[in-house]
Design goal:
- By secondary structure, the protein is of the alpha/beta class.
- The protein has 6 helices and 5 strands.
- Strands 2-3-1-4-5 form a 5-stranded parallel β-sheet, with helices on both faces.
C-alpha cells in the first residue's frame, strides 16, 4: 500500500495537533506543522507578515511531504485546511501524484472551542507552550474564514 497523506481540518485550537500526534504514533507517520515552523523562525513576532510566511511554509511542506511519501512514510499535514478551496487544492496536488488522501475533521462545539482558546492562551502567557496566542481579533478572523467541510469531503470525523 502506498504512503498516505492525512489532512487535519478544524478551527484553530480545535484539537488538530493533539489528534495529529495520536495519529503519528498509530501510523508511524511524520507530522508537518506550519505553526511549528513559523513559531520556530519568528516566534510571536511575525506580525503583518504572518500570512505570507504561512503561505511560503505551506508550499515548502507540500514539496517536502512528497519526499517523505516517496520514502514510504505516511505524512500528516497539521494545519487548518480552513476553506474548501484549500482542501480541494491539496487533494488535487496529491491525486495528480497518485497519493491517497484522508481528511480528518476535528469538530468541536463553540463552548469547547472557547474553553480551549482560553486554556491555550493561558498556557502561552505562562510559558507552558510555544503555540500562538489567539486574541479576539485573530479568533474572529479564523471564525470568518473557516468553512466546515461537507460530508463528502470528510474521511474521518473526530468529535470532541
Amino acid at each position: 500500500m502506498p504512503a498516505t497523506v492525512y489532512l487535519m481540518c478544524g478551527k484553530i485550537c480545535s484539537g488538530k495537533s493533539t489528534h495529529a500526534r495520536a495519529l503519528r504514533r498509530e501510523r508511524r507517520a511524520v507530522v508537518l506543522s506550519v505553526d511549528e515552523i513559523t513559531l520556530a523562525l519568528f516566534g510571536q513576532d511575525a506580525g503583518d507578515m504572518l500570512d505570507e510566511y504561512v503561505a511560503r511554509t505551506e508550499a515548502y511542506l507540500f514539496d517536502k511531504s512528497l519526499e517523505i511519501l516517496e520514502s514510504g512514510i505516511d505524512v500528516i499535514l497539521d494545519w487548518g485546511f480552513w476553506t474548501r478551496e484549500e482542501r480541494g487544492k491539496a487533494r488535487a496536488f496529491y491525486a495528480a501524484r497518485g497519493v491517497p488522501v484522508e481528511l480528518h475533521y476535528i469538530s468541536v462545539s463553540d463552548g469547547t472551542w472557547h474553553a480551549r482558546l482560553a486554556a491555550r492562551n493561558a498556557d502561552v502567557l505562562a510559558g507552558r507552550t510555544d503555540a500562538y496566542y489567539v486574541d479576539d481579533g485573530l479568533a474572529a478572523k479564523f471564525r470568518s474564514i473557516f468553512e466546515p467541510p461537507a460530508e463528502k469531503e470528510i474521511d474521518v470525523i473526530v468529535s470532541e
